[in-house]
Amino acid sequence: MEITDITEYTLEYEMDATFEPSWYPGFEQSIHRVQLFEVETDAGITGITSVSGDATRVDALDLAREYLVGEDPRHVEQRLEDLRSLDSYGPRPWHFEVACWDIVGKDVGKPVHALLGGDPDPIPAYASTGELRGPDERLAYVEERVDEGFEAVKLRFHSEDISEDVEVARRVREAFPDLTLMVDLNMAWSVSAPGGETWTFDDALGVARELEAIGNIGWLEEPFDGRNYDALARLREKTDVPIAGGEFNDGVHHFREFVDRESLDVLQPDAMLSAGILKGKLIAGLADLHGLQFAPHTWNDGVGFAANLQLLACTNPTWCEYPIEPPGWTPETRDFLLDEPVTAEDGAVRPPTDPGLGVAIDWDRVHELAS
């Protein structure tokens, strides 16, 4: 089998309501932008993959064709060597490995997780917020999620006055004493958003101390740049709150540094952004070997969510991130390019079990939206 071509579709989906991501202060998102790729083969089997959000601004298609066309997608380790070469040019290429797994799964008629020793059992999920909201509005959100069966919620801290965010967490804890809370600071991006601020060590330590008092905190996510291993390790030494990160780190070597320098308690690669599925599984092994938690980042689109679910299903994860922030960010918005959105039931998500990534593309919508 050989890869014969790669077709790209640039999609812009008009959201039902605007979404104000906490990691982009002052920005209102009304379009969900996704690049969908079909990796075609001479066997008539096509693998799908995608990038979404800011990653769509980087055009790697010509380079991907140069490295992948004419090669066998079933030889995933060899294709990863090709993608490492592509990575040296700048654009992250790991999503193309996901398409190879989709092809392999479709070729043998099994979901990716089954090929890698996994199972289709439901994975406990936490409801992942994306906006800054006041206490009353956030309490209403949490009540809805708890009624749906979620036992954990992740809050965003990004206000100019951090005491406002701490007060939200405190109010949620008072109302839901048994709920596990995660907190995401979104400070790990190497390219900061306009209006974004970076934190000092004392800022992060102060919040960690507040969270210790609030109690039952699953983790504090991305308090510093994702390559500031020493600051992360120093903070980890000074707080009982677990420290998490890694969604935008690039390649296994970054996660090796996290482990070697004792920087994190929770490793959070993303199959589409950080490492692919096979190396994501290797990172999960690192976590297991060193007594760390493994909880991949999943905030992208329906194809990316499916890829991360396949990774979760063949590892030993702590939680599955379930992004949901209605009315702007819903499963229907996230998964608009799928026939059916991936849903949570009783606070858990079951990995797709059809061959490959296990999800079906809504090709009518893709062709309607493609530019």
Instruction: Characterize the largest beta sheet: strand count, sense, and whether it forms a barrel.
Output: 10 strands, mixed
> What is the CATH architecture descriptor of the largest domain?
Alpha-Beta Barrel
What name is given to the CATH topology of the largest domain? TIM Barrel
Global shape: globular
If you average the pLDDT, what whole number results? Answer: 92
Radius of gyration: 20 Å
Number of DSSP strand runs: 13
CATH superfamily of the largest domain: Enolase-like C-terminal domain
Q: How many helical stretches? A: 13
Q: Strand content of the residues, in percent? A: 15-25%
Percent helix: 25-40%
Number of domains: 2
Question: For the terminal residues, how far apart are their CA atoms?
Answer: 30 Å
Secondary-structure-derived class: alpha/beta
Q: How does this model look, in words?
A:
- By secondary structure, the protein is of the alpha/beta class.
- Helix 1 (61-68) crosses helix 2 and helix 6 runs parallel beside helix 7 (201-214).
- It has 2 domains: 3-109, Enolase-like, domain 1, CATH 3.30.390; 115-349, Enolase-like C-terminal domain (TIM Barrel), CATH 3.20.20.
- The longest helix is centred in the C-terminal third of the chain and has 19 residues, at 271-289.
- The strands form 2 sheets. Strands 4, 5, 6, 7, 8, 9, 10, 11, 12 and 13 form a 10-stranded mixed beta sheet that branches.
- It is globular and about 60 Å long.
- It is built from 13 helices and 13 strands.
